[in-house]
Design a protein that fits this description.
single chain; alpha/beta; TIM Barrel; eight-stranded parallel barrel; two-stranded antiparallel ribbon; 10 strands; about 20% strand; globular; Xyl_isomerase-like_TIM-brl; isomerase; IolE/XylAMocC-like; Sugar phosphate isomerase/epimerase
Length: about 270
């Protein structure tokens, strides 16, 4: 089992602390989603003029970079050029760190009908395919926001080149927000699933449909069953903790959540 975590869960940690604690807690890799308040990490000296030193720090610690998680929303027409520039920057980092993946969102579609939204997403993926091929990476479309349904994601993926696009199955969102069963998600998207996000939550007692993130295994997302489903079907990608401390400051600190996650997941294997 390969474990990673996104830096969304430790927004106040400096880079050296991120590396040190990844090793200490028993992780295999880091998924970069911001460092010390800067979400576009290619703007930081550690990933610009000092990037080779950073690469060597991570490598010497016995770690890998499992993914660079971008802020790109693929549906957006207005921000397409900015999104393209962001993908280029992350593509450069992927080449240096020998990282296979850049995470992207589908994004909100507003009043656009689904069929048109699907074609817009497909078109944007196709326009970025030459850049992705140049850097030898794939764009991971996450099951998130208006692209949580496996059928909607499948309709996109069926039209894309598997050399440049894959699916990031966020194990939480389809189950929690749509009631989509894990077998349903897997059956629809298994040809493209190459990466996962893991998190747990429990429904709030007094508010219908609302949930609260909680430590791994303490909620009612069927994570053990999901792991078994993936493992039994030969999935060999990362199980990446997405602890959303950046967006939900009330949840436990990474010093608690990260080692607890690693312990829970290792016990499943």
């Amino acid at each position: 089992m390969k474990l990673s975590f996104t830096t969304l869960g430790c927004p106040d940690w400096e880079l050296e602390v991120i590396i040190q604690r990844a090793v200490e807690y028993g992780f295999d890799a880091i998924d970069f989603r911001g460092v010390m308040g800067e979400m576009n990490i290619y703007k930081l000296p550690a990933f610009a003029e000092n990037v080779l030193h950073t690469r060597d720090q991570i490598r010497d610690a016995g770690l890998k970079v499992s993914c660079f998680s971008s802020s790109v929303h693929m549906f957006s027409k207005e921000k397409f050029e900015a999104n393209k520039a962001e993908i280029i920057e992350y593509g450069k980092l992927c080449s240096l760190f020998q990282t296979r993946y850049i995470r992207v969102f589908g994004g909100a579609i507003g009043e656009t009908n689904r069929a048109e939204a699907i074609q817009t997403i497909v078109s944007h993926f196709q326009e970025l395919s030459a850049i992705v091929k140049e850097y030898g990476v794939k764009l991971l479309l996450e099951t998130h926001d208006d692209w949580t349904s496996c059928e909607d994601v499948k309709a996109v993926m069926e039209q894309l080149d598997t050399e440049t696009a894959a699916v990031l199955w966020d194990l939480h969102h389809p189950f929690r927000t749509l009631g989509e069963q894990p077998e349903q998600t897997w059956n629809a998207l298994s040809p493209w699933i190459e990466y996962t996000h893991v998190k747990d939550s429990a429904l709030k007692a007094d508010t219908a449909g609302e949930f609260q993130y909680c430590l791994t295994g303490q909620g009612n997302i069927p994570l053990a069953d999901m792991y078994k489903l993936l493992n039994d079907n030969g999935y060999d990608g990362y199980y990446t903790l997405e602890w959303e401390k950046k967006w939900h400051p009330e949840i436990e600190n990474a010093e608690i959540a990260f080692p607890q996650y690693a312990q829970f997941m290792r016990a499943l294997a």
